[in-house]
Design brief:
297 residues; alpha+beta; N-terminal domain of MutM-like DNA repair proteins; Helicase, Ruva Protein, domain 3; four-stranded antiparallel β-sheet
Length: 297
């Protein structure tokens, strides 16, 4: 499933095509996404201008001139593609170097936004675990998809003190705590593994051990926040990680998978200088965890 860097990469790709443009036409080719699209979905969008394109955790948030907000989630296999009408083929797609073979198959193009900017924004989702929902802007913070999300890891409010407070007394592993979207929003398996490696903390360590008895942070909490911030910023700069489904809105792949230090590197030499250990894989809560048992304590 796409994590924060992949969703942020998509947001940045959609912004030039959608911000300050109107939804001229909305085609709904398949309503059976993760949750069925309501019958008035297109009506609530058509004619409305996009006032801003944001992100909350793994959700894209499209502000509308009506005061509504369009919430979008990529699910397991969702992708957005942006094309422009000028010079398109008859099916509306641009012949260019990012016109990949996968994009020729239109059976999974479920929602198509025709923007007044001339851009055509296509949501393609073979597994249909993605979702879209229009909610009143005033109700956004109470929306169940958004309300329980923890702090954004790249915001100033997310620091060692905030992380220590929420981890205080937790009887789960540090890995499990970081995957909990109520603790911090947007992290998934890849970036938790990479952040823990950078912080030199074992994924098996109890979450409560990064906080003192009264919830004050220790130096491990400081290292962990630094590791989370660093890996997310690097991944966003690289366009995210393309392992299975993630593509940027121009059809190109993200490149951060070539910079993984431990994720999916089982049996390889630990990249820390002087370390003779190899990357180990274990299973935690049904998910693969990759780490260096020598460097991460």
């Amino acid at each position: 499933m796409p994590e924060l860097p992949e969703v942020e990469t998509v947001r940045r790709g959609l912004a030039p095509a959608m911000e300050d443009a109107r939804f001229a036409k909305v085609e709904v080719r398949c309503r059976a996404l993760r949750w069925p699209l309501p019958g008035d979905f297109a009506r609530r969008l058509e004619g409305r201008a996009v006032t801003g394109l944001g992100r909350r955790g793994k959700y894209l948030l499209v502000g509308l001139s009506s005061g509504d907000v369009l919430i979008m989630h990529l699910g397991m296999s969702g992708s957005f593609y942006v094309f422009h009408k000028t010079g398109c083929h008859s099916d509306g797609r641009v012949p260019a170097n990012y016109y990949h073979e996968r994009q020729r198959r239109t059976a999974h193009d479920h929602v198509i936004f025709h923007m007044s900017s001339g851009a055509v924004v296509i949501f393609n989702d073979p597994r249909r675990f993605g979702t879209m929902k229009v909610v009143a802007g005033n109700d956004l913070e109470a929306e169940p998809l958004i309300a329980a999300l923890g702090p954004e890891p790249l915001d100033d409010a997310f620091d060692a003190a905030a992380l220590a407070r929420v981890c205080r007394g937790r009887k789960t592993s540090l890995k499990a705590a970081l995957l909990d979207q109520r603790v911090v929003a947007g992290l998934g398996n890849i970036y938790v593994c990479e952040a823990l490696y950078r912080a030199r903390l074992s994924p098996k360590r109890m979450a409560a051990t990064i906080a003192g008895k009264t919830g004050e942070p220790d130096e491990r909490a400081e290292r962990l926040v630094g590791g989370i911030r660093a890996v997310l910023k690097e991944a966003i700069a690289a366009g995210g990680s393309s392992l299975r489904n993630h593509k940027r809105t121009d059809g190109e792949l993200g490149m951060f998978q070539h910079r993984f230090r431990v994720y999916d590197r089982e049996g390889e030499r630990c990249p820390t200088a002087g370390c003779r250990s190899t990357v180990k894989r274990i299973v935690q809560n049904g998910r693969s965890t990759f780490y260096c048992p020598a460097c991460q304590k």
